[in-house]
Amino acid sequence: MDWDKLRIFHSVAEAGSFTHAGEQLNLSQSAVSRQISALEESLKTPLFHRHARGLILTEQGELLFRTAHEVFAKLAMAEAMLTDSKDRPRGELKVTTTVGFGSTWVAPRIKEFSELYPDVSVNLVLDDHELDLSMREADVALRMRKPTQPDLVQRKLLTVHYHIYAGAEYLKRYGTPKALEDLNSGHRLITYGEEAPAPISDVNWLMTAGMPPGQKRDATLQVNNTFAIMLAVESSLGIAAIPDYMTEGNTRIVRILPAVEGPTFETYFVYPEELRNSKRIAVFRDFLVRKVADWHF
């Protein structure tokens, strides 16, 4: 099987079109199409269903894509290990975590890391759904729960606490609640919504805190992202429970009901066993551990 054609097939299957794959490969749409047709001819089987809205893999195409994806993931792993065989850490480090944690806690600290290790290029992938480290969708994950996969190396990074916040203008207009019971009427609440993230248990605890069993408060806004919740609180739309890592140094929101603390959860630094000796991962892990130790909230 021709290696170049397989590489082009893999890009087309991921992109879903000849045009988008061509842009990634710096090839024309017609050149990509010719390579795929030649691959299909050599295999004597169609790999894609072609229609006006794009491309869909055939059953045979799905089989080839899964195999190719695994091969390219292993090659990327080998490349990372070869790169890390040098004394100085260098190369790309792909890090994934949630949108909220990555935007508000990790991203502001990348500048200092880049100054310490200028040869390491950080690719920060923010997604509230967990990426598959075993398939090299990322090198490192900062997870909001303890991983269960046996082939992942893990280290506890920090304990996350939830507290209740509101915008200053909101409090001027609606008043500052003195007890949880004050939230039952006359206040506007913001919640994560029904699609709460599975790794975080009871993320909507504010909706039931202090309420009789089986009852909950109504929400003015439901949004499936903690970063968006914080922005809504900043705009003085309402009151919400926000993790402390998002509120560090934020003067646009005010902590209320200080005696009330929500559930806590652990955050873990996770990476595949195959990258245990990676210098890039080691320096990034040690850097984050130092930042957590220095973090006074």
Shape annotation: globular
Quantity of strands, as a count: 11
Poorly predicted segments = none
Provide mean pLDDT, rounded. 88
**Terminal residue distance:** 57 Å
Q: Give the helices and strands as they follow along the chain.
A: HHHEEHEHEEEHEEHEEEH
Helix tally? 8
What structural class do the secondary elements suggest?
Answer: alpha/beta
Q: In percent, how much strand structure appears in the residues? A: 15-25%
Biggest β-sheet strands, sense, barrel: 7 strands, mixed
Describe the SSE topology.
Layout: H1 3-15, H2 18-25, H3 29-43, E1 48-51, E2 54-57, H4 59-83, E3 91-97, H5 99-116, E4 120-126, E5 140-143, E6 152-167, H6 168-174, E7 190-191, E8 221-222, H7 226-234, E9 240-243, E10 253-256, E11 264-272, H8 279-294
Parallel strand pairs: 3-4, 3-5, 7-8
Antiparallel strand pairs: 1-2, 5-11, 6-9, 6-10, 6-11
Helix pairs in contact: 1-2, 1-3, 1-4, 2-3
